[in-house]
Amino acid sequence: MHRHFNDLVAWFGRLPGSVDLRTLRLLDRGDYGWVEFVAARPCAGAREVEAFYRRQGALLALLHLVDGTDLHHENLIAVGAHPVLVDVETLFHPPLAGTATEDPAARALHDSVYRVGLLPQLLVGDHSALDVSAVGGGRAAVSPVVRADWADAGTDRMRLVRRAGRFGESANRPRLADGGPVEPAAHVEALCAGFRAGYTAVAATKEELLRETALLKAFAEDEVRVLVRPTWVYSTLLDESTHPALLKDADERQRVLETLRTDALGRALAPDLVDEEIAQLWAGDVPLFTARPGRDGLWGTGERPLGGRTDRPGTARVAARLAALDTVDRQDQEWIVRAAMATASRAPAHRPARDRRTRTAERAPEPERLLSAARSVGDRLVSLAYRAGPRSNWIGLELLDDRYWRIGPMPADLAGGYTGPALFLAQLAALTGAGHYAEAARTALAPVPGLLDALRHRPEDLGAVGSGAFSGLGGIAYALAETARLLDDPEVGSWASAALRLAGAAARSEEEYGVGAGVAGGLVALLAAHRAGRGAGQAAQEVWRDARACADRLTGATPTAGGRGFTTGAAGLGWALLRFAEAEAEAEAEAGTGTGAGAEAGASAEAGAGAGARAEGGGGRYRVAGLSALRAAVAGDPGPDGGPAAGAGGREARDPAWCRGRAGIALAVLDAPGALDDPHLAAWSRRTVEALGRDRPAADDSLCHGEAGVCELLGHGAVPEARPHWIRRAGALLGSAEETGARSGAPGGVAHPGLLTGLAGIGHGLLRAGFPDRVPSLLLLHTSGPA
Q1: 77 φ, ψ (degrees, to nearest 5)
Q2: I need a surface site. Which of 105, 106, 615, 732 has the fewest CB within 10 A?
């Protein structure tokens, strides 16, 4: 395999416009041989570092084209300006037959440059994350996974413990002679330039390579290692199954190994493959499977042929990939490179590192220009979607625990999942009458029935999913209901009702309280459905009972436990409680007259409320709790410029963002019913609006912590005096979209489809600026009325 790979690299280096790559020298003795030993060496200066990343980009292109995978930080050594690959056992790596996913975005990512393993890939645990890739990994770190280990090995105190393992520093990352390892995020352009050069060079001569097939055919009978599961699964099973308690009983140990036959450790495999796995584990080995690029079979230990099959021979797959090379595919792959590199950023997720200057407007942007810019965003979203049959999806960037970015097929949530782009496209379809936006929205929602059905049958998982407005079932229900109204689609409306019931159930057992991922978000989603008049009779009463249960839980929460901001902290809790207090007062008033939907809600409220709650009436205790939470959100921030007072603590006091900063806190106060009756809250919010309005444009255009989120605040009807500031900042948002393209809130401004930090949210912000009466605010879960 090494010899044939060296021949391929030599051919690659001779292509016009390509990049020279270093390989290992070989001493071939037929059935055996030796491979050159190479030692890591630092780069002499910045030029060599740039050359290293350019070569690494070209190597990435070549490995992608020959179906390489699992090429992580231990398989590459940085030798000056050269990335040297030292392990090529997983080239021409075949997927197993019958393992293809139905998600077109997941399939596209699996077949993409990301599969190679060179690009950053995070292994995320409960308390930390570890990058194991050849580009971003290699730092000394603690494993995010706890495993069995021996403490005080080799002593009389030796004992079995569970703890996180430790990784030493690897030799894969370039270093400067007078410094430490280089930060790869600073060299994205060099990496992409090398990838582009390598891809383009092969694409220009692909016909020659396909005609002169000797280079590919040479690999046909080489032995390829096939990874049917991650190696860590086997390592964990070996550790757990050799526990002293299991070594006493062979049947018990066999039962542990038999978990491989279930889906607990990933997709279930063919029975004969699992038999082979268990046999090798009994022998104390990490199971090894092999294939031949020219055939579709699989082999186990000792060259034993197995019944499992690959989907087609590796050489045939590579030939098909070469034939499909074109400019569109190169651009798709380069986007994946940039998105993956964004996940390696070490910058705080909600605090962009740099500001920028954008032209601002002296008069309100014309709605036609705002709509045109939003259509450009919508067209880009449509073009980024992967479609297969009746289903489509996007590859997106997901923010985990507000700390780690991960690239992957979009899940269902509103913040970073497919319901966000679907809802924006439905808004665009309703404004323009363009059918292709509506069709794109519908195909994106195709997996929803299966998701809801799965959750219905696994109620124990609902608490983990949560009822949150942006990262839970509440937001999914809201997005489905609004999309159903916009597209006049009763079927999608029925999904919304089902999601709403699940959100109510999730809120009873989840542990989070915030708007984004917790009970406050579930409450506001339930109130949105109630206010829009969706459902009647028993369904309406169930919605109201679930909303009351959420409100009751929030009154017992510590408002500032999640900070002071909108998505996780006191501002969001106070806003949600005051919205419920208003809804309860209205319901009681309507119940008194026996009219309207409020009569049913009022009856439910009477039935579900205790004597103390009925005595207070009109949502009194919820109003008190809501105002208290909002006061806690603005506490310590009485500065005359809207900034923190001297010595005031909390990042939110200095942060202008919607998600957890001053824009979100002020928006919560302005939108919470009755909050402006409090003199302190009213004065604080107006000072803050004025201060934020005078600020320079944000570093990005996102809803979460960018310009679109600030525009939502400045355009709120409760502060008409902020209109001059809104004009200037809305002009900045439009200018950015028109002149340089919408800049996302992800690291490096990488454009991705999501709502809170991506294109869908920026498009929504443009529509809100142009058509505020026709496009309700997603950040506030406003609705447009009955479906």
Answers
A1: -125, 130
A2: 615
| DSSP helix/strand/coil, 31 | coil
Mean pLDDT, rounded, for 628-635: 96
Q: Which amino acid, residue 229?
A: R
Residue 694 to residue 728: CA distance in whole angstroms: 9
In order, the DSSP letters of 511-556 are ---STTTSHHHHHHHHHHHHHTT---THHHHHHHHHHHHHHHHHHT
Per-residue pLDDT of 373-416, as tens digits, reads: 999 999 999 999 999 999 999 999 998 888 889 999 999 999 99
Burial 259-292 (b: 16+ CB within 10 A, else e): ebeeeebeeebbeebbbbbbebbeeeeebbbbbb
pLDDT in tens, 227-268: 988 888 998 899 888 888 888 889 999 999 999 998 888 888
- How much of the chain exceeds pLDDT 70, in percent? 91
Rg (CA), the chain: 29
Q: How many CB atoms lie within 10 A of CB 715?
A: 20
Q: Over range 359-373, report the average pLDDT.
A: 86
Give me the pLDDT at residue 675, please. 97
| Structural contact between residues 228 and 273, judged by C-beta atoms closer than 8 angstroms | yes
Confirm if 685 and 722 have CB atoms less than 8 A apart. Answer: no
- CB–CB of 747/705 below 8 Å? no
Q: Would the pLDDT of 521 be above 90? A: yes
Residue-level pLDDT at 142: 82
The C-alpha atoms of residue 530 and residue 524 are separated, in whole angstroms, by 10
Task: Provide the residue type at 186 as one letter.
Answer: A
Query: Contacts for 711-714 with beta carbons within 8 Å, 24 or more apart?
Result: 711/765, 711/768, 711/769, 712/658, 712/663, 712/667, 712/765, 712/768, 712/777, 712/779, 712/780, 713/658, 713/663, 713/666, 713/667, 713/670, 713/689, 714/689
Instruction: Of 314, 299, 291, 290, give the one whose Cα is nearest residue 216.
Output: 314
User: What is the CB neighbour count within 10 angstroms for residue 642?
Assistant: 23
Q: Cβ distance 135 to 120 under 8 Å?
A: yes
| DSSP letters for 220-255 | TTS-EEE-SS-HHHHHHHHHHHTSHHHHT-HHHHHH
Tens digits of per-residue pLDDT, 739-785?
Answer: 888 899 999 899 999 999 999 999 999 999 999 999 999 999 999 86
Residues 65 and 318: beta-carbon distance below 8 Å: yes
CA distances from 538 to 62, 197, 496, 544, 629 (A): 61, 63, 16, 10, 32
Q: CB under 8 Å to 16, separation ≥6 — which residues?
A: 201, 204
Give the pLDDT confidence of 384-393 residue by residue, as tens digits: 999 999 999 9
Average pLDDT over residues 90-105: 84
Q: Where does 66-205 have alpha helices with state H?
A: 104-110, 188-204
Q: Is 640 in a helix, a strand, or coil?
A: coil
Task: For residue range 179-219, list pLDDT tens digits in order.
Answer: 778 899 999 999 999 999 999 999 999 988 888 668 888 99
pLDDT at 350: 65
- Please state, in angstroms and rounded to a whole number, the distance separating the CA atoms of residues 776 and 213: 59
User: Please, are residues 596 and 531 in contact by the beta-carbon 8 Å criterion?
Assistant: no
Whose tokens are 């046999």? That residue is 279
DSSP 574-629: HHHHHHHHHHHHHHHHHHHHT-HHHHHHHHHHHHHS-HHHHHH-TTHHHHHHHHHH
Residue 124 phi, psi (nearest 5): -105, 130
Between the CA of residue 409 and those of 110, 172, 406, what are the distances in Å? Answer: 10, 28, 10
Q: How far apart are CA 192 and CA 714, in angstroms?
A: 39
Q: How many helices and strands, by DSSP H and E, does the chain display?
A: 30, 16
Give the pair of three-digit tokens for residue 425. 């496209």
